[in-house]
Design a protein that fits this description.
Blueprint lengths: L6 H12 L3 H8 L5 E5 L5 H14 L8 E5 L2 H11 L8 E4 H16 L6 E2 L4 H10 L6 H16 L4 H11 L8 H17 L2 E2 L1 H14 L1 H10 L2 E4 L7 H11 L5 E5 L14 H4 L1 H4 L4 E5 L1 E2 L4 H11 L9 E2 L12 E4 L2 H17 L7 E5 L5 H10 L4 E3 L9 H16 L5 H11 L12 H17 L7 H14 L8 E5 L8 E6 L15 H15 L2 E10 L13 H6 L7 H5 L3
Parallel strand pairs: 1-7, 1-8, 2-3, 2-6, 4-5, 6-7, 9-10, 11-16, 12-14, 12-15, 13-14, 15-16
Helix pairs in contact: 1-3, 2-3, 4-21, 5-10, 6-9, 8-9, 10-11, 10-12, 15-22, 16-17, 18-19, 18-21, 19-20
Length: 584
């Protein structure tokens, strides 16, 4: 490892390592060559990789502008940037695969192709609708959505339409009631129409820059000169196309660190392949392999349940709760309810009890398999007077009151200097109706206050030396990346959208056959993905985890059986009678 002259710098670097446990420190000190960190849920993987990058910068091994940290969502990339800045590595690029590829494509397109980059499609639905009209096909909205997903899967799987046809004949369900010929014609018409209109979709961005690197030596040289060290988070979610592009960026070099957990592979339907994570040691025979299995998030009881669910599955890690875990929880159990409405009301009662006992609403989440399950839950919470927010609905920074507040703060930051940040921000927010005390009334007024108060909370979290302008810069970055602040409301979310988040108390409802696993999961691989999805939900909980299911669905002859996963993981345990009595 490179030696650093000067005691202060070395002390700063060693201080970074002192914040890590032994296994995390092993990963942080492996700065050169291929490194694979197998990191279980709640084991501090983000801390490990950000400290690793910062340690590389502090010791002089890394030049910040030559490091690329890659992940899969704008929120995750923003989280990486926000953690790297205070560690002294703010100059490191932390982006999604698409953002990194788009930046490169914008730069090289005028040089290689000429002219401006074609317009990016925001979505495929409208163009697919026009393709259907051209082919004189009547296709409903749901089928168009499924067609869009199939096109995305084909392209991230690096398949031509002819290659897709071979796969589709044996192992891909066809969208709607379309024949294979109609599906293939729609794929081709979509691509033809897009090309005629000089447009690119998101997959084309990755394909185009990959093509330039392969065909233009000058492009490959410049990109590889710019970036030498790569870190990829959530590596279990990488697709064949992303893996190919990453290989092109590396160009035969081996300074790659990947981090992932095969048990959290829940996007196989979108082209993700955990095989790249599991076969990393075969791809790089001299790789440093590190396992992070000490869980700092959840109680021992939650950890034990998660381990039982995944026991014996490929790549599953054996989690163990941190030795200094301060709080044990009740053993998670399962509560059956007669109907969906009874289940929703029972969960609402339990949440009401938690809130009355002083639990913050922002630390409670209710998770479910499909969006349709939220409707009855919304009614039950509203009837109980409990505020909630649905993750994946309207974005925080798109709310009218938040847009107005951010614009007002930005304008004020130009002229106001020298005042404490708290005073500057609170003065602006007071002019928009914010007060320190929340309004007693529910509804729009309370919702607006919660939004403004979340902005105030962000200001309170800033370091003492943060200027007003720096704070508004961070707000703009958060708005562009979707990195939303905490609002004091119970979170409702699908199991998929809960990935990467955590709460003190988690309720998972609808744990019956047909929902978890979902009814259309028929193959072994699909069932296993449903198991991993439940694992993700379970490991979101820090201290309290309550599971439930309804014994009947809507309509006649709708009896439901409990999910097969419950028998394996929970062994029929039930929660105390208070929860069941709430349904009667």
């Amino acid at each position: 490892m490179t030696e650093v002259a000067g005691g202060d710098e070395e002390t700063g670097a060693e201080r970074l390592l002192s914040a890590l446990d032994d296994d995390q420190a092993v990963a942080a000190k492996a700065l050169i060559g291929p490194v694979c960190v197998l990191a279980g849920a709640g084991t501090g993987k983000t801390r490990a990789i950000t400290h690793r990058i910062a340690y590389g910068v502090a010791t002089g091994v890394y030049s910040p502008n030559r490091v690329m940290a890659l992940t899969f969502t704008a929120r995750a990339a923003a989280e990486l940037r926000s953690r790297l800045r205070p560690l002294g590595a703010g100059g490191v690029a932390a982006r999604t695969f698409h953002a990194a590829a788009l930046s490169q494509l914008n730069y090289f397109w005028p040089q290689v192709v000429g002219g401006d980059l074609p317009r990016l499609l925001e979505g495929k639905a409208r163009l697919l609708g026009q393709a259907a009209e051209t082919l004189k096909l009547r296709i409903d909205t749901g089928t168009l959505r499924d067609l869009a997903a199939e096109i995305e899967w084909r392209k991230v799987s690096s398949l031509s339409i002819a290659e897709y046809e071979v796969v589709a004949r044996t192992s891909r369900p066809l969208p709607g009631r379309l024949t294979l010929e109609q599906v293939l014609n729609m794929h081709q018409q979509y691509e033809d129409t897009k090309d005629e209109r000089r447009q690119l979709d998101f997959e084309d961005v990755l394909l185009s820059i990959a093509g330039m690197i392969e065909q233009e030596p000058s492009v490959a040289l410049q990109i590889r000169e710019q970036y030498r060290f790569f870190v990829v988070d959530e590596y279990q979610d990488v697709s064949p196309l992303q893996h190919h592009l990453l290989s092109l960026w590396l160009g035969g070099r081996r300074d790659l660190c990947v981090v992932g957990d095969a048990s959290q592979t829940i996007y196989s339907f979108a082209g993700a392949k955990a095989e790249y994570l599991l076969s990393f040691a075969s791809e790089f025979d001299d790789a440093t392999m590190v396992r992070l299995e000490q869980n700092y998030r959840s109680s021992p009881e939650v950890v034990e349940l998660a381990n039982r669910l995944m026991a014996g599955r490929p790549g599953a890690l054996s989690l163990h709760a941190a030795g200094d875990s301060p709080v044990h929880s009740d053993v998670p159990g399962v509560t059956p309810y007669d109907t969906d409405l009874a289940e929703a009301r029972g969960v609402a009662v339990r949440i009401g009890q938690m809130l009355a006992a002083g639990a913050p609403a922002s630390e409670i989440a209710v998770l479910y398999r499909v969006n349709a399950q939220a409707a009855v839950l919304e009614t039950a919470l509203a009837d109980a007077g409990i505020s909630y927010q649905i993750r994946g609905s309207k974005r925080f920074f798109d709310l009218p009151e938040v847009k107005q507040a951010v614009m007002s703060l930005r304008a004020a930051s130009v002229s106001i200097t020298g005042e404490p940040l708290f005073k500057s921000v609170s003065d602006v927010l007071r002019s928009l109706g914010w007060r320190q005390q929340a309004p007693e009334a529910r509804g729009a007024a309370r919702d607006k206050w919660e939004s403004l108060n979340a902005l105030m909370g962000l200001a309170e979290q800033q370091a003492a030396e943060t200027t007003f302008r720096q704070f508004t810069d961070e707000l703009m970055d958060r708005a562009s990346s979707g990195h939303e602040p905490t609002i004091q409301a119970v979170t409702l979310a699908t199991l998929h959208s809960a990935k990467g988040l955590e709460w003190t108390a988690v309720f998972i409802l609808g744990l019956s056959e047909g929902l978890v696993p979902i009814s259309y999961a028929s193959s072994f691989e699909q069932i296993d993905e449903e198991r991993r999805l439940l694992y993700v939900g379970i490991t979101r909980a820090r201290r309290s985890l309550e599971l439930s299911y309804s014994q009947s669905g809507p309509g006649r002859n709708s009896a439901r059986a409990p999910s097969r996963f419950l028998a394996e993981a929970v062994a029929g345990r039930r929660t105390p009678g208070a929860l069941e009595s709430a349904t009667r």
